[in-house]
Each structure stands twice: as structure tokens, then as C-alpha cells.
Amino acid sequence: MIDSAPKDELLTAAECAARIGLTVRALRVYERHRLLAPKRTEKGWRLYGAAEIARLHEILALKQLGLSLSRIAALLEGRANDLDRALAIQEAALSALRSRAERGYSLVAAARARLRAGDVLSVTELVTLAKEAHMTESSFDAIAQRRYEQARPRKPIEIDPAALEKYVGHYKSEVGFVWDVSLKNDKLYFKNPGWPVANYALPEGEHQFFFPRWPSQVTFGVSPEGAVESLTYHSGGFENVAHRIDAAEAEREAAILAHRIRNKIPNPGSEELLRRVIASLQSGNVDFTQFIDSLSARLQLGFSVVFEELAAKGAVQTLAFRGVGPVGGDVYDVKFENENTEWRIGLAPDGLIRFLFWRSMP
Q1: Which pLDDT score, from 0 to 100, does residue 63 have?
Q2: How many domains are contained in the chain?
Q3: Do 89 and 69 fall into the same domain?
Q4: Please, are residues 115 and 121 in contact by the beta-carbon 8 Å criterion?
Q5: In 7-135, at which residue ranges do the beta strands (DSSP E only) sit?
Q6: Are 243 and 298 part of one and the same domain?
Q7: Same structural domain for residues 224 and 298?
Q8: Residues 209, 178 share a domain
Q9: Separation CA 241–CA 218 (nearest Å)
């Protein structure tokens, strides 16, 4: 029988370096940091196959985010190659770069057209143009770095169940919702208004826990005296901090939300705000400072897709308030020229938009 399995092509260090655009010295440095372990011939010559080059790709992706070699080594220690995750990081970074470049190009082109027509740009327009035309990618690199860290495999540790008691309680997020942390069957369970059920997390450190069902974690903030003061939720490359509140405040927050839902009370000004946001997303002239940081970053990362999708819907014909959702967002039926949609907009205590999403309706 003929073996049809593909043979692993092996490259010498010089061939590997030349093809990828590195130096042999760089390969040696990665090897000294125990990031690479190439195969060896009987005479000791190093050989690089598919597995080694996949790991090298992962190293370069993390290095591109600004991580030190020691930090990369800590992230990759004991882990099998994960080329897909490395490619996902690069895909997100390239998508952000393309989206922001397209947005900057459209703004510059529009500004030049107005100047040719004899118009004068306002100070606000010039500031926006300067910011968008000279943007950096450091913040998006940080998001990709955190996403990679949050997605790495995790192992639970043994912890005294009695030590979990101190985490039980209520924590109010900086963007307005309340986390409830409870203890059941020697496990910590977490619940917020956006989750239909509570979900448990396992300990990976003294104050660090991870959710086994998806790549998210919680870190508790503890004072020097040992008092638990906050929790930070790590997910999707972002972090959200919630500060501890007492049971009475948690009950008040729940009562306020229940009252708004029951009586269909929108946040003041949310209708006009939603109209402005939709118009800005369709025109491409968006003030991203009106969103919380994580939402602003998400919109900028995928702006080219958002712009194309909303532009295809046509002009807004009607916009009608329907009620309040389970996490406090105002729900609107928005009829475009070409499509009927449902929108939900949620506001943080400081007035910034904390979430915004839409879906098609019949």
C-alpha cells in the first residue's frame, strides 16, 4: 500500500530563518528562552518542521504585541502549539488596522471634497480628522494581548472551601449592573442581570477564578487587611471592574431595574441619543468617546462591517420605544427604508453608552 500522508519538510536553521525573514541568531535566542525545541540530526544540526514553524508563528504573533520573551515563555509553557489562536490575534489586529485605515481614508476624502467646494472645516471636525488620520494601534495590541491571555488553558487548584466565604456578596460594576456572588456545593457562582442562570468558576489562584465553560476569568481585589473590595471580570480582551456593595444597595439597584422594566421607563434622552448614534454610524462620522472604552474599541475594530451593514439599510423612517430589557437597556423598534430592526441601548451611570446592538426583525 502506498503511504499518501504528507511528509514533514524539514528546514535547516539557515533555511528557516531566510524563508521567514529572521536571522539564525534570533532562532538561537528563542531556543535559549526555551520557546523553540528544534529537532536534531545525529551530528547535532537543528531542523525545523511544521510543528516548530507553527510555534515560531505563535512566538512572532505575541512578540508583535510587545510581549517580552520571558512573558511569552510563561504564556506558552507546557502548552501545545495553537496556530489558530495566533492567527486569530493577527486577524484581529489586521482587521482593526484595515477598518481604521478605511475610516481615516473616507474622512480625509470627504474633508478634501468639502475644501474643494469652498467649505470651511470646524474646529471639532479638524480635531476628529487629526485623531483619525494619525491613529496608533497600541490599544488594539493590548486588547489582543489580553484576549490571548484570557484564552489560554487553565487548571484548577485545591482551595479550602471555607476560604470562599469572604467572596460572597454583591458587586456593582462601573458600567451600572450588579454581580451577585454566592457559594453552593463548595463552588463560587456568579450572576448578573444579563445571564439567565448563575455560572460557577474554579480557583486558579488565591484570588483568581476561571469559568470552565468559556475563556473568561474573575479576579478579586483584596485590601492589605484582607477585606474583599472588588472583582474584575476578564473576557474578550476587555476588563470590567465592580466594587463591593452591601445587600441593601443591591436590593435598591434590583428594585430600580424592576420598576423601569415593569413600567417601561426609558433612560432620559435615549431616543434622541439613539437617533444620533445611528446617523453617525451610517455617515461614518462617529464620536467614539460617547461609548465606554470596551464598546468603543469593539466598534472601531469592526467599523467597516458596521458601516456597510447600516448603509445598506437605508434611511431611518420610524423609531419607537418598546420597553426596557433585562439588563436595563432601552428597546426600540427602528424601521429603515430597507429593513425592520430591533435596537437595544444601555447607558452607564456617567451617561456613556455601555452597550449597543441590533438585530433584524420580520
Answers
A1: 75
A2: 4
A3: no
A4: yes
A5: 11-12, 39-40, 46-48
A6: no
A7: no
A8: yes
A9: 10
Average pLDDT estimate for 149-175: 91
Q: Tens digits of per-residue pLDDT, 96-116?
A: 566 666 666 667 777 778 788
CA distance 362 to 34: 56
Checking if the pLDDT of 1 tops 50, the result is no
For the question of whether the overall pTM of this predicted structure is more than 0.90, the answer is: no
Residues 234 and 291 in one domain: no
Same domain, 274 and 231: no
Q: 248-257 long-range CB contacts below 8 Å, 24 or more apart?
A: 249/170, 249/172, 250/170, 250/172, 250/178, 250/180, 253/172, 253/178, 254/178, 257/193, 257/328
Residue 41: CATH number of its domain: 1.10.1660.10
Question: How far, in Å, CA of 255 to CA of 249, rounded?
Answer: 10
Element holding 226 (H helix, E strand) = none
Is the pLDDT confidence value at 160 over 60? yes
With a cut of 50, say whether residue 53 has pLDDT above it: yes
Q: Among 82-96, 216-230, 300-314, name the one with the lowest average pLDDT.
A: 82-96
Grid coordinates belonging to 13? 536553521
SS3 (DSSP) at 21: coil
d(C-alpha 235, C-alpha 247), whole Å: 26
* Largest interatomic CA distance in the chain: 80
Averaged pLDDT score across all residues of the chain: 85
